[in-house]
Amino acid sequence: MTGPIEQGTSRTRGSTHILTFLVRLSQPMEKVWPQLATPEGLARWFTEADELQPRLGGAVTLRGLGSGRITAWDVDRIVEYTLEDGSRLRFHLERYGEDGATLRFTHEFRGEAESERRWRSRFERLVELNEPRGARTPDPGASG
Fold it and tell me: pTM for the complete prediction?
Protein backbone atom coordinates (compact mmCIF):
# COMPACT_ATOMS: atom_id res chain seq x y z
CA MET A 1 0.00 0.00 0.00
CA THR A 2 1.29 3.46 -0.85
CA GLY A 3 -0.17 6.01 1.53
CA PRO A 4 -3.88 5.80 2.25
CA ILE A 5 -4.77 4.59 -1.28
CA GLU A 6 -3.84 1.02 -2.11
CA GLN A 7 -2.77 0.34 -5.68
CA GLY A 8 -5.90 -0.18 -7.75
CA THR A 9 -6.44 -3.54 -9.36
CA SER A 10 -8.14 -4.19 -12.65
CA ARG A 11 -9.37 -7.39 -14.18
CA THR A 12 -11.69 -8.34 -17.02
CA ARG A 13 -14.56 -10.82 -16.95
CA GLY A 14 -15.92 -11.28 -20.45
CA SER A 15 -16.46 -7.72 -21.74
CA THR A 16 -16.77 -6.26 -18.23
CA HIS A 17 -13.86 -4.47 -16.56
CA ILE A 18 -13.67 -4.61 -12.77
CA LEU A 19 -11.64 -1.92 -11.04
CA THR A 20 -11.11 -2.09 -7.27
CA PHE A 21 -9.48 0.20 -4.72
CA LEU A 22 -8.90 0.12 -0.99
CA VAL A 23 -8.76 3.56 0.61
CA ARG A 24 -7.94 4.27 4.27
CA LEU A 25 -9.62 7.38 5.65
CA SER A 26 -8.89 9.11 8.95
CA GLN A 27 -12.55 9.89 9.73
CA PRO A 28 -15.09 7.40 11.14
CA MET A 29 -17.60 5.71 8.85
CA GLU A 30 -20.40 7.98 10.03
CA LYS A 31 -18.53 11.06 8.76
CA VAL A 32 -17.45 9.45 5.48
CA TRP A 33 -20.90 8.05 4.61
CA PRO A 34 -22.46 11.39 3.54
CA GLN A 35 -19.60 11.86 1.06
CA LEU A 36 -20.62 8.63 -0.68
CA ALA A 37 -24.40 8.75 -0.35
CA THR A 38 -25.57 12.37 -0.67
CA PRO A 39 -25.56 14.74 -3.64
CA GLU A 40 -23.58 17.35 -1.69
CA GLY A 41 -20.98 14.83 -0.58
CA LEU A 42 -20.47 13.25 -4.00
CA ALA A 43 -20.12 16.68 -5.63
CA ARG A 44 -17.21 17.57 -3.33
CA TRP A 45 -14.91 14.82 -4.61
CA PHE A 46 -16.51 12.80 -7.44
CA THR A 47 -19.37 14.19 -9.54
CA GLU A 48 -22.70 15.98 -9.30
CA ALA A 49 -25.66 13.77 -8.42
CA ASP A 50 -28.55 15.39 -10.25
CA GLU A 51 -30.89 12.92 -8.57
CA LEU A 52 -30.32 10.65 -5.59
CA GLN A 53 -33.16 9.00 -3.69
CA PRO A 54 -31.41 7.65 -0.56
CA ARG A 55 -32.92 4.18 -0.29
CA LEU A 56 -32.75 0.73 -1.83
CA GLY A 57 -34.32 0.96 -5.29
CA GLY A 58 -34.08 4.76 -5.31
CA ALA A 59 -33.28 6.61 -8.52
CA VAL A 60 -29.81 8.06 -9.10
CA THR A 61 -28.36 10.22 -11.85
CA LEU A 62 -24.62 10.80 -11.75
CA ARG A 63 -23.52 13.60 -14.06
CA GLY A 64 -21.27 12.31 -16.81
CA LEU A 65 -22.06 8.67 -15.99
CA GLY A 66 -25.81 8.26 -16.39
CA SER A 67 -28.97 7.27 -14.57
CA GLY A 68 -29.93 4.14 -12.73
CA ARG A 69 -30.97 2.72 -9.38
CA ILE A 70 -29.52 2.20 -5.93
CA THR A 71 -29.08 -1.58 -5.79
CA ALA A 72 -27.52 -1.83 -2.30
CA TRP A 73 -28.17 0.45 0.67
CA ASP A 74 -27.00 -0.20 4.21
CA VAL A 75 -26.80 3.17 5.98
CA ASP A 76 -23.28 4.12 7.10
CA ARG A 77 -21.83 1.03 5.37
CA ILE A 78 -22.76 0.18 1.77
CA VAL A 79 -24.15 2.02 -1.23
CA GLU A 80 -24.19 0.65 -4.74
CA TYR A 81 -25.23 2.57 -7.84
CA THR A 82 -26.17 0.46 -10.88
CA LEU A 83 -26.56 2.52 -14.03
CA GLU A 84 -28.64 1.88 -17.15
CA ASP A 85 -25.54 1.06 -19.22
CA GLY A 86 -24.87 -1.88 -16.86
CA SER A 87 -22.01 -0.24 -14.96
CA ARG A 88 -21.95 -0.57 -11.19
CA LEU A 89 -20.21 1.50 -8.51
CA ARG A 90 -20.05 -0.01 -5.02
CA PHE A 91 -18.78 1.82 -1.94
CA HIS A 92 -18.34 -0.42 1.12
CA LEU A 93 -17.18 1.15 4.39
CA GLU A 94 -15.60 -0.73 7.29
CA ARG A 95 -14.17 0.49 10.58
CA TYR A 96 -10.41 1.05 10.59
CA GLY A 97 -8.83 1.37 13.99
CA GLU A 98 -10.61 3.49 16.57
CA ASP A 99 -11.34 6.59 14.50
CA GLY A 100 -10.92 5.69 10.84
CA ALA A 101 -12.69 3.98 7.98
CA THR A 102 -11.66 1.73 5.13
CA LEU A 103 -13.42 2.19 1.80
CA ARG A 104 -13.57 -0.87 -0.43
CA PHE A 105 -14.52 0.37 -3.88
CA THR A 106 -15.55 -1.63 -6.94
CA HIS A 107 -16.42 -0.26 -10.36
CA GLU A 108 -17.71 -2.65 -13.00
CA PHE A 109 -18.03 -1.18 -16.49
CA ARG A 110 -17.72 -1.87 -20.21
CA GLY A 111 -15.51 0.03 -22.59
CA GLU A 112 -12.55 2.18 -21.66
CA ALA A 113 -14.27 5.25 -20.16
CA GLU A 114 -12.84 4.92 -16.66
CA SER A 115 -9.27 4.43 -15.60
CA GLU A 116 -7.28 3.68 -12.49
CA ARG A 117 -5.62 7.10 -12.79
CA ARG A 118 -8.99 8.95 -12.79
CA TRP A 119 -10.23 7.05 -9.74
CA ARG A 120 -6.93 7.54 -7.88
CA SER A 121 -7.26 11.30 -8.45
CA ARG A 122 -10.83 11.22 -7.13
CA PHE A 123 -9.78 9.25 -4.07
CA GLU A 124 -6.94 11.67 -3.40
CA ARG A 125 -9.59 14.42 -3.15
CA LEU A 126 -11.68 12.21 -0.84
CA VAL A 127 -8.66 11.58 1.41
CA GLU A 128 -7.98 15.33 1.59
CA LEU A 129 -11.60 15.98 2.61
CA ASN A 130 -11.21 13.49 5.44
CA GLU A 131 -7.98 14.77 6.94
CA PRO A 132 -8.54 16.10 10.44
CA ARG A 133 -8.23 19.89 10.56
CA GLY A 134 -4.63 20.93 11.11
CA ALA A 135 -3.26 17.46 10.30
CA ARG A 136 -1.82 18.42 6.92
CA THR A 137 1.94 18.90 6.96
CA PRO A 138 2.87 22.38 5.74
CA ASP A 139 4.77 22.55 2.46
CA PRO A 140 8.19 24.08 3.28
CA GLY A 141 8.42 25.53 -0.23
CA ALA A 142 5.05 27.28 -0.04
CA SER A 143 4.97 30.99 0.62
CA GLY A 144 2.21 32.36 2.74
Answer: 0.85
